[in-house]
Amino acid sequence: MASSSEDQQSQSKATDPPPPHPSSAGNNPPPVYPPPTLGYPPPHGHGYSPAMGYPPPPPPGYPPAPGNYPPYNTYYAQAPPAAYYNNPQNYRAQTVSAGFLRGIVTALILLVAVMTLSSIITWIVLRPQIPVFKVDSFSVSNFNISKLNYSGNWNGSLTVENPNHKLTVNIERIQSFVNYKENTLAMSYADPFFIDVEKSSQMRVKLTSSSPDDPGNWLETEEKVGQEKASGTVSFNLRFFAWTAFRSGSWWTRRIVMKVFCEDLKLAFTGPAATHGVYLADAHSKTCSVLF
């Protein structure tokens, strides 16, 4: 009986599984984690966050960065905070400034348009015209041009006509010149005058020549004037600057500066030594050119 019990114990020992061996650290299986919760990213490898100073690995499904370049997400700067975009005060200030500038620009455009339109309408209704200047008489006495003596007393009379049907003309100031070629022989100011609608007025000018600052500049002029006097006539130019105001009642006024050119006025002299010359008027008065 003792032998049978020993046989049974030996058979049970032979059929039992061997005892487990002590486990080593190198053969441990990887830990099993529960599936990631919906809405949260999966944990990094082995449950540890990346080391400080190193970018995280690319998400699953994307190839790693080629070569030694940093991952893709390091190329983009961090977006500014949401308060930068959603600050209502900044948005309100920008809106007010833009609206104010648009209002100023619109007002200026409307002002220019209204002024231009009103000027065009006024011009069409009033139709302002330039006065007409005609030389009636022109003469010089005690005329002499030389290095030692330079003198001359000039007198002229002009008729100034106002062709406007609705505008009066007020010549507030007028400056007159007597020129030989392009050399100014005398200069003075004439009296202002007023011309009513479709009327005319006489303008008288009186000028006196005085010695030039540099007599040497007049040597050629003296020679040319002497040659023309020997032929019997000398041509002079009578010119004006006229500061003029056009008015229609008390509601419309326009001021301009007119330039009047009465060119090639021939004065007759009796000889080379004559000091008195008179304008040879044609059948009609000499009409001057007017620019403004």
UniProtKB/TrEMBL annotation:
Main localization category: membrane
One GO CC term, this protein: membrane
Biased composition (Pro residues): 16-44
Ranges where the record places region Disordered: 1-52
Subcellular location: Membrane
Positions of transmembrane segments: 100-126
Name of the protein this chain belongs to: Late embryogenesis abundant protein LEA-2 subgroup domain-containing protein
Source organism per UniProt: Cucumis sativus (Cucumber)
